[in-house]
Design a protein that fits this description.
The complex is a heterotrimer. By secondary structure, chain A is of the alpha/beta class. Chain A is 34% helix and 21% strand. The chains are: A alpha/beta, B alpha+beta, C alpha/beta.
Chain lengths: 301, 193, 325
């Protein structure tokens, strides 16, 4: 199995963004990197100047690079952006919305986790029209993952294996609303929360994380104990979603666990140290509430 | 506690609450006749609306506590086919039911005959539900589809005199409703504007 | 503009037709539709009867088969398609690409509508569905402003249907896993959001506390209007803010926007609420029938008087107004 670094979902300062990817290029045992701002079109200009050099550095390090498209496309400039991306991208595009997919039909492309692929027929339909990679939606249970992967050849299937889980997208910016601002005049308040802004229940229990127009889980997806299962199902890659932590270390832990150099319990202990701010979850994979977590070593026979 | 709720007709109306004096008058009344009437209505409903059970599915075997807030008694309904039961009690016990629905008798009856929308009653807090919410939702949907007419079912017991009895009951309810409104105990609608 | 009305039971269906619906949308009583609630929806026989009732009165029936078929279990969804087509459904409302492919291939004459669950929010997305499956109409997600709706209608790719009243998703439809994060059941997979089986209400010190799965999602003071137990309308805390961080408990009411929506070239107006009772269907359908009659005769839109039926006893024009964002 390969490792993919998903697109950075949060609003990091441009220099930090660049340096993050430089380090991934130089040090991380990652095979594929998806670049690009996919959450908010207002953030797009910040990274534009660094994008070519980051792309080059990653490619020079032997990584396959993809460019991800916006999850929600409504504004005219967003429509223009995805059309242009599809037309001019020097690398394969990962479509995160049917708007972008429409521009890619007939050409090799990737399907991101925000396009609804819940069954074999949909995966087959997309594969026949050029999909080479499909990252399945995070809420899919293992039974669906395995059935889809078994049914469609010539597509590299990928699952969301680490990071806060994207749960929803809205036209409304919750970050701006929280600061009493409108989306159009948001002052980019989301830049203060590198891992998203934690939202608690009234019982003061950390629950969700806000990232502009996107809502994520507070808990961090972690399929390190499910890697063997995924391998058996024929899953081609695990997706690690960038958090503000040592992602090189995260990728090494996953690589070592995949190669059975460390066992899941040890891997987990190290992972907790690397990303201590959120507890883990793997409920979606096990057909449970997504927030649920089954500890490594506990096998249901 | 009261908010305006819309009924099936074109007029706005609030969910009426009986004045406390009604509960006071009824409190010493024996439960046996009421239990008999409730049993009769339930039988009639079952006979005329078998579709309710299909919609209820497995929820038919649940026990629903129905607590009118403005009357000195409550019901425990178990709509399980083929012989559903209803018990009349002075107070709803803390246990012995799977779900509990609490509201004025007008709210509960309006829910049963489709004059009120259940979600609206919940939003306005005219209805409180507890316990097995799935069972409550199933019951609500099954009853809304059935189009129950409780007065009709209740007065059918009078056989050849059912029609005049039904007319009398409806007019009595109409008078009671007006009385309640006149006494301004129907709540916010009366206080608004 | 057509008036498209919801029905969760045969009785609600007849109420909708009698109250002036041009078309009624409804679904089978299983997980193939996005309102898979206990005691709701139509058996095969009830669907047949509903179609007969509507067609005898000049109304159309749109059958919603708008969840995403489960892998290894697509047959159940295909059966729903086969039956709905066999019964003479006027249109099918679909969300899944694979299911659309099946339907378009097997029943090329059948009218297809793109469900709001497909989240087709731009002309390019709509073009995909028109080109691939010859869909005739798209139900637009509740993320668009009126000018954006107008731009899509102007593009003329297919008919457009927009929501005008009822429950309001704060998140884009068909792309929300908040419910399954808490309960394991989602709109996309199971046709339920915040399923009743995972909801509890408890009176605690004069407050009504609602919980979904393991999480507290709201606390209502006495007499405070309540909301559905959905996460996007729950009360939460972030930093020093406590309250409705995503959205207040409100319902959509776009009655005042009817002239603008007609101007925009919208084909059909949709009322949400297949889970609601006959009283709601009757009131809301009649109110919007009156509003459309007034619109057609150049009169002002009469007040609907529907606030008491709404979540939180309050309404919003949602994303139709750009400042909502």
């Amino acid at each position: 199995m390969n490792l993919t670094l998903g697109p950075l979902l949060f609003n990091w300062e441009a220099a930090a963004w660049r340096d993050f990817y430089f380090r991934i290029a130089d040090e991380a045992p990652i095979d594929t990197v998806v670049l690009g701002e996919i959450v908010c079109s207002k953030r797009l200009p910040f990274f534009a100047e660094h994008l070519p050099v980051v792309l080059q550095r990653l490619a020079a390090a032997g990584k396959e690079v993809l460019l991800g498209s916006l999850v929600l496309v409504t504004l005219e400039r967003e429509q223009r952006h995805i059309a242009e991306l599809a037309a001019t991208s020097p690398v394969m595009v990962e479509a995160n919305d049917v708007s972008c997919l429409a521009h890619l039909i007939g050409r090799p492309h990737a399907i991101g986790p925000f396009i609804n692929v819940y069954n074999e027929s949909t995966a087959r339909f997309l594969a026949a029209r050029g999909a080479r990679r499909i990252c399945l939606p995070p809420e899919l249970p293992s039974a669906s993952i395995s059935a889809i992967a078994a049914a469609v050849d010539d597509v590299a299937f990928e699952v969301f294996a680490f990071g806060r889980i994207p749960l929803a997208i809205s036209a409304r910016c919750t970050h701006a609303r929280l600061h009493g601002l409108s989306k159009d005049n948001c002052r980019f308040v989301c830049e203060h929360d590198a891992d998203g802004l934690v939202l608690e229940t009234l019982d003061a229990e950390p629950f969700l994380a806000i990232n502009g127009v996107q809502t994520l889980s507070h808990r961090c997806a972690n399929l390190i104990d499910e890697l063997d299962d995924l391998d058996t199902m024929g899953i081609a890659a695990c997706r690690l979603s960038p958090q503000r932590c040592d992602m090189v270390a995260v990728s090494k832990i996953f690589r070592d666990a995949m190669d059975h150099r460390i066992d899941p319990i040890e891997a987990n202990a190290t992972l907790t140290q690397v990303f201590p701010i959120a507890p883990f979850s793997n409920g979606f994979f096990h057909g449970q509430p997504g927030a649920a977590y089954r500890e490594p070593g506990i096998r249901s026979g | 506690m009261r908010l305006e709720v819309i009924c099936m007709g074109s007029t706005r109306m609030a969910v009426a609450v009986l004045p406390p004096v009604v509960a006071a008058i009824l409190r010493p009344a024996p439960l046996a006749p009421l239990a008999l009437a409730a049993k009769h209505v339930l039988r009639a409903v079952v006979r005329h609306h078998p579709g309710i059970f299909e919609r209820l599915g497995t929820h038919a075997h649940k026990r629903f506590g129905l607590q009118p807030t403005d009357l000195p008694f409550a019901f425990v309904l178990r709509p399980a086919p083929p012989s559903p039961t209803v018990r009349v009690v002075r107070h709803l016990p803390e246990r012995g039911w799977d779900a509990r629905i609490i509201g004025s008798i007008a709210a509960l009856a309006g829910l049963a005959d489709g004059r009120f929308d259940g979600d609206a009653l919940f939003f306005s807090r005219d209805l409180v539900v507890e316990g097995d919410i799935e069972a409550v939702v199933a019951l609500r949907n099954a009853i809304d589809d059935a189009g129950l007419d409780l007065i009709h079912e209740a007065t059918a017991v009078f056989g050849p005199f059912a029609k005049p009895a039904e007319a009398a009951a409806r007019s009595a309810i109409g008078i009671a409703d007006k009385l309640v409104r006149a006494l301004s105990i129907s709540g916010r609608a009366a206080r608004w504007n | 503009m057509e008036l498209i009305c919801p029905a969760g039971t045969p009785a609600a269906f007849r109420t909708a037709v009698d109250a002036g619906a041009d078309a009624v949308y409804c679904g089978f009583n299983d997980e193939t539709n996005a309102r898979n609630f206990p005691g709701l929806n139509f058996s095969r026989e009830e669907m047949r009867q509903a179609l007969a009732y509507a067609h005898a009165r000049g109304a159309r029936v749109l059958v919603a088969i708008n969840t995403f078929p489960r892998a290894s279990a697509e047959a159940a969804w295909r059966r729903a398609i086969d039956d709905a087509v066999g019964y003479g459904a006027d249109a099918l409302i679909l969300a899944d690409i694979g299911l659309m492919a099946y339907t378009a291939q097997k029943y090329p004459e059948q009218r297809l509508h793109v469900s709001v669950q497909a989240a087709a929010a731009s002309p390019a997305a709509i073009r995909f569905y028109v080109d691939a499956f010859a869909v005739r109409r798209v139900v637009l997600p509740r993320v668009l402003s009126v000018p954006e709706v107008a731009a899509i209608a102007r593009a003329g790719l297919c008919e457009t249907e927009v929501f005008i009243f009822g429950g309001l998703c704060v998140m884009e439809e068909g792309r929300c896993s908040l419910s399954s994060y808490c309960t394991g059941q989602s709109p996309n997979m199971n046709g339920v959001c915040s399923p009743a089986s995972h909801v509890t209400y408890q009176e605690q010190d004069e407050f009504l506390v609602s919980r979904l799965g393991d999480f507290t999602i709201n606390r209502f003071a006495k007499a405070e209007p309540a909301a559905y137990p959905t996460l996007c309308k729950g009360r939460f805390r972030a930093g020093t803010n406590t309250g409705y961080l995503f959205e207040d408990p409100v319902s959509l009411d776009a009655a005042a926007l009817l002239p603008a929506l007609r101007e925009a070239g919208v084909s059909a107006l949709k009322i949400e609420g297949r889970q609601r009772g006959r009283a709601y269907i009757d009131r809301v359908v009649r109110a919007f029938r009156r509003a459309l009659t007034a619109l057609d005769s150049g009169q002002a839109i009469p007040p609907g008087g529907l606030k008491a039926l709404t979540e939180g006893q309050a309404t919003t024009e949602g994303a139709y107004q750009k400042r909502w964002r």
